[in-house]
Design the sequence.
């Protein structure tokens, strides 16, 4: 009886390890696919890509702000009566606190209800903490990919 129990435990452990490996593989390749999609885009191109994506997702009055002097917001938009000020970051590494601060300042400058940072990457832990404190939405590469896959 003890041998059967040991075999069952080993089989269960093997299945758990296999499933964990599959999950890690999917996450890694999903991140890689999203990064590749934006690899050749420049910052301003990424802003227009994000604006088009937001329009397809039901946002209205979507406007890309001028390149310099945008006060920390690249896109102004509205959805369901809520106004947004969105900072876009096409980076090759995780996005830090500075982008959160820019979105926070831009949200108030443009008198928007919600501030957000939209990136092809992910966010550092300090950026996530700052966003929680300042009430800034974080839309990372995985979120953008999900938006692209969903039907409007």
Sequence:
């Amino acid at each position: 009886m003890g041998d059967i129990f040991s075999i069952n435990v080993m089989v269960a452990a093997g299945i758990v390890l296999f499933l964990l490996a599959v999950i890690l593989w999917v996450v890694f390749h999903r991140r890689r696919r999203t990064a590749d999609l934006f690899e050749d885009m420049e910052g301003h191109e990424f802003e227009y890509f994000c604006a088009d994506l937001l329009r397809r997702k039901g946002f209205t009055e979507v406007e890309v702000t001028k390149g310099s002097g945008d006060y920390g917001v690249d896109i102004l938009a509205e959805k369901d009566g809520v106004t947004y000020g969105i900072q876009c970051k096409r980076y090759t590494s995780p996005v830090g606190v500075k982008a959160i601060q820019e979105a926070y300042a831009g949200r108030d400058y443009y008198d928007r209800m919600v501030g957000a940072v939209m990136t092809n990457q992910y966010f550092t832990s300090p950026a996530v903490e700052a966003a929680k404190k300042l009430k800034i939405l974080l839309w990372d590469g995985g979120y953008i990919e999900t938006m692209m896959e969903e039907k409007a």
Observations:
- Residues 1-39 form one domain.
